[in-house]
Amino acid sequence: xxxxxxxxxxxxxxxxxxxxxxxxxxxxxxxxxxxxxxxxxxxxxxxxxxxxxxxxxxxxxxxxxxxxxxxxxxxxxxxxxxxxxxxxxxxxxxxxxxxxxxxxxxxxxxxx
Amino acid sequence: xxxxxxxxxxxxxxxxxxxxxxxxxxxxxxxxxxxxxxxxxxxxxxxxxxxxxxxxxxxxxxxxxxxxxxxxxxxxxxxxxxxxxxxxxxxxxxxxxxxxxxxxxxxxxxxxxxx
Lengths: 112, 115
Prior knowledge:
The complex is a heterodimer. By secondary structure, chain A is an all-beta fold. Helix content of chain A is 0%, strand content 48%. Chain A has strands at residues 4-7, 10-13, 19-25, 31-38, 42-49, 56-57, 64-66, 76-78, 87-94, 102-103, 107-111. In chain A, the strands form two sheets. In chain A, strands 2, 4, 5, 6, 9, 10 and 11 form a seven-stranded mixed sheet that branches. By secondary structure, chain B is mostly beta strands. Chain B is built from no helices and twelve strands. Chain B has strands spanning 4-5, 10-14, 19-21, 24-25, 33-38, 44-50, 56-58, 64-68, 73-78, 87-94, 103-105, 109-114. In chain B, the strands form three sheets. In chain B, strands 2, 5, 6, 10, 11 and 12 form a six-stranded mixed sheet that branches. A four-stranded antiparallel sheet of chain B has the order 3-9-8-7, with no helix packed on it. Chain B has a two-stranded antiparallel sheet with strand order 1-4. The radius of gyration of chain B is 14 Å and the shape is globular. The chains are: A mainly beta, B mainly beta. Chains A and B meet through strand 5, strand 9 and strand 10 of A and strand 6 and strand 10 of B.
């Protein structure tokens, strides 16, 4: 069954702790993306990766880090430097040379 | 940078009413246009897309959208909504200044259909 999995669905952390959000895909798509969704703000791009071992900052990369060691996986780390980390995080993928993106179910992160 | 405008963030309407959501974008160099929908508790999913051809495109669940090149618009419509259309709707347009297949998303329209 092809798709994108994000785990966990809900995540709670204390302020000052780093936390890593998982994104795995078996669609064999080259590109992967991380977005942050806040009410009334739409989707804002954090990081994206076109190929393994390469990634670029999006519009709001400060306080986040990523890695792309495997085609299937694109984990996002929310560091303690992120001033307002509580949000809904969405992972997406796309085929090479295609703008159409496919989304995972999301992880809701709450930092207190 | 590409910007995508969606007005009237909150829309409340009764079943059987008609729905139209506006989408305007700033850069007209591409015709890859998308509407995504996020039903409560579900994944963000593609509602419809336009790449070329007939500017009136039809998507799932009776939705349609019209591409008007001269107006940089891609408005979403449904003639008669149902309670199950309650969702958040996002317009997305390629961000050519960045390349690499990036999309720019609008801020979304939260649509609530009252039975």
